[in-house]
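#struct-pred

JT: dropping the chains for the assembly here, can someone run the whole complex?
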Amino acid sequence: MSDSDLIVLRNIAKTYRRGEESISIFSDLNLTIPSGDFVAMMGPSGSGKTTLLNLLGGLDRPTSGTILFDGAPIEKLSESQLSAWRAANIGFIFQFYNLMPTMSAARNVELPLLLTSLSPSERKKRVKTALEVVGLDNRAGHKPKELSGGQQQRVAIARAIVADPKLILADEPTGDLDRTTAAEILEMLQLLNRELGKTIVMVTHDPAAAKYARRELHLDKGTFEERLT
Amino acid sequence: MSSLFRQIAAVVTMTIGGLPSRFWGSVTTVFSIALVVATLLAFLAMSNGFAKTVAGTGSDDIAMILGTGSEAELNSTMSSEAVRLLEESPGLARDATGRPIASPELYVVVGANRRAGGGEANVSLRGVTARAPELRPGFRLSSGRMFEPGTNEMIVGVGVVRQFNGFDLNTELQLGGSAWKVVGVFEVPGTVFDSELWADLPVVQSLFNRGPSVQALRARLESPASLAKVKAFVESEPRLQVDVKTEKQHFAGEAQSLQYLVYFGWALSITLGFGALAGALNTMYAAVEARSKELATLRAIGFGGFPAFVGAITESLVLALSGGLVGSAAAYLLFNGLTASTLGGGFTQVVFDFNIGPAQVLAGVQLALLLGLVGGIFPALRAARTPLLKLGAD
Ligand SMILES: Nc1ncnc2c1ncn2[C@@H]1O[C@H](COP(=O)(O)OP(=O)(O)OP(=O)(O)O)[C@@H](O)[C@H]1O
Ligand SMILES: [Mg+2]
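RK: done, full complex below.
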């Protein structure tokens, strides 16, 4: 492991228990993602892509094995430590945007900052910057339902980057968008990776979307197969 | 800590902002709680109004003397001999001629027709002497004149005129097989006497075959402290088998009987409360479920479970408080000042006004908030434990 490795998965096993039977998703998964990487994760439905993303984001725990983030294992953190760790290090982007319907775009973007010690004026400045990055500073007061799908996803991206996390995890971020809008979103992720140095792991079904990443990982039957793009 | 407050504020505003999107569920909850509160307030208003009327009736410096063991006037008897003896008691206030200010009284229950809704109800016809008004502070003839002793004339309380047909001034009517004439209308504001008919004592005794006995002797005391003198006199006189109280003590005892109605009111409201609670739980679980994706998203961002808990509890309390206020307002509009009559102690019709005051509203709102708290706590716990796999819900 080198200093520049942001994430290292070692011997990860994940088993779901459903009543009596247990389903093994991975039994011995190993993966290293260097800082500044942009990984497109592909694979058939049910292969465990979302499961893996949840493990990387501290939303779920491995059955066994170690997840090192910046060299420190996260799987042993308590629930509340993990919450604080997510707030500080991870930005999430979801297929269906997951914005708060009753809040304005600016308030949605501000949410992660509520967990920091920033003053209201600092928070406001950061929100403005994040909305500028995604080109929506003129829509700050709009509610999600007053925005198009692509605009909503851009608000979600602003929310994901506003607290300046090291890692952005995106699960099918373009799955609900048309081709042109999807391209805009993917270009934006590419920009975040290239210009701002964000490490990104993106799950996608779409080979065209995967081309925006630095490399593709194919997950099938519990193992990876790598292709450089 | 301040981060926690910011999280709570965000979740609470999100929750309250989302109320209109669950409009019908929210409205149903508000109304079911309002119904419970209005029911409770109806009973509290009734007992409060009755208590006020009865409390207004009792006086501290009037002795109320009944035959031994009789809680109510109706089942008391006292001979004319006893009355004559009692009038000699020390401690009684006397007029210039040395006669005690005392009123031997007897009442009988007669039927009367209600104005509203029809139907028969009982009214007291009280046989009194000319002294009776002196023992009712606030007594006033509002129209007509006093009855002539020895005649079939009567005066009627304003409460009776208001509630029943056939008692207007100058009306002739049949009671207990004989003819009577209404020659005056009187009031003793805020007392039970307002709902009585008064006629000459000897006439009532003879027309209702009561012989020379009476039920009660009311007598003005020199001072409230003189009650002890009267009691001592009664104990030293073996021919007197009577109980002595102040009039206030007497009516306080009667008000006790209505306490059961209050217990019934609470029982009924609490029963209805369980229904409202089931509805509230349902609404709240649905509300938490409807928000589960947002709550899971906040958890993913790093929010704690406690703000989600507070958000749900707040929503539930807001709904409950609205229900409490709507119910109180409805009860106030429907019941406050409503005139009713009921069977008081001794089977007499007592006319009183429903009365809703701050204490009754407070009780109603407290019940509502209790329902909100109980109906919100389990859904709130579920909200706090929203699983992260709800992230993909849509
Ligand atoms: N909480 C859970 N409990 C039980 N089984 C689960 C749970 N979450 C996922 N699974 C199972 O684990 C397997 C992998 O699910 P996962 O959601 O990671 O797949 P995926 O690769 O993201 O699929 P898709 O492309 O359809 O999103 C599936 O068989 C799924 O049914
Ligand atoms: Mg998936």
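JT: nice. The pocket of adenosine-5'-triphosphate (ligand 1) is lined by residues A 16, 18, 23, 25, 43, 45-51; B 389 (CB under 6 Å). Chain A has a mean pLDDT of 92.
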